[in-house]
């Protein structure tokens, strides 16, 4: 899969992760709220670089497509990291795949996640529908109300509550679905 893919949403640029993102990743992961909702633990630039290399391997294998979400704030020349979106579990003949996302603390409340997820969703169906992709699944902990709001704004309908499965999933979860349009 081409790792030079870039996506656009209003005010956002989405591109594959690269080694230059490590410092911004470490900064984003200092946020306790982000750490609560994600399984990755990035304590330093070495951790962040390992994480970026995992994203690159996912692209190379054609099974996980992670995008850094960037925005250029007013009065600044360079874009800053404001989030992450990912498409995972894509395989030819498989009708579903999963999406995920997070937003950096400084960018929350600005509609970053719905805009980035919308761009990812469009790209996923445009790119993989011919391979059999029919629906996208969005999963989150049931107490993550912000993710429920992002799902609704992005056209992902609530499907059902998933029971907890400790230790990896200690709390119930929500499954939201988005189907490809005819």
From TrEMBL:
<keyword id="KW-0614">Plasmid</keyword>
<dbReference type="GO" id="GO:0005737">
    <property type="term" value="C:cytoplasm"/>
</dbReference>
<dbReference type="Pfam" id="PF13302">
    <property type="entry name" value="Acetyltransf_3"/>
</dbReference>
<dbReference type="InterPro" id="IPR016181">
    <property type="entry name" value="Acyl_CoA_acyltransferase"/>
</dbReference>
<protein>
    <submittedName>
        <fullName>Acetyltransferase</fullName>
    </submittedName>
</protein>
<dbReference type="GO" id="GO:1990189">
    <property type="term" value="F:protein N-terminal-serine acetyltransferase activity"/>
</dbReference>
<dbReference type="InterPro" id="IPR051908">
    <property type="entry name" value="Ribosomal_N-acetyltransferase"/>
</dbReference>
<feature type="domain" description="N-acetyltransferase">
    <location>
        <begin position="32"/>
        <end position="182"/>
    </location>
</feature>
<dbReference type="GO" id="GO:0008999">
    <property type="term" value="F:protein-N-terminal-alanine acetyltransferase activity"/>
</dbReference>
<keyword id="KW-0808">Transferase</keyword>
<dbReference type="InterPro" id="IPR000182">
    <property type="entry name" value="GNAT_dom"/>
</dbReference>
């Amino acid at each position: 899969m081409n790792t030079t893919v870039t996506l656009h949403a209003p005010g956002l640029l989405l591109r594959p992760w690269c080694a230059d993102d490590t410092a911004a990743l470490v900064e984003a992961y200092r946020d306790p709220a982000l750490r609560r909702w994600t399984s990755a633990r990035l304590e330093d630039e070495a951790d962040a670089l390992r994480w970026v290399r995992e994203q690159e391997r996912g692209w190379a294998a054609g099974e996980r497509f992670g995008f850094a979400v960037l925005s250029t704030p007013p009065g600044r020349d360079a874009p800053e990291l404001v989030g992450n979106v990912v498409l995972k579990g894509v395989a030819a003949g498989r009708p579903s795949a999963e999406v995920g996302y997070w937003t950096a603390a400084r960018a929350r409340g600005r509609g970053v996640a719905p805009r980035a997820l919308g761009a990812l969703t469009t790209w996923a169906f445009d790119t993989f529908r011919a391979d059999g992709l029919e629906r996208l699944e969005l999963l989150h902990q049931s107490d993550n109300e912000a993710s429920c709001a992002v799902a609704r704004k992005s056209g992902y309908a609530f499907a059902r509550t998933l029971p907890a499965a400790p230790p990896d999933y200690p709390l119930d979860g929500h499954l939201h679905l988005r189907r490809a349009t005819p």
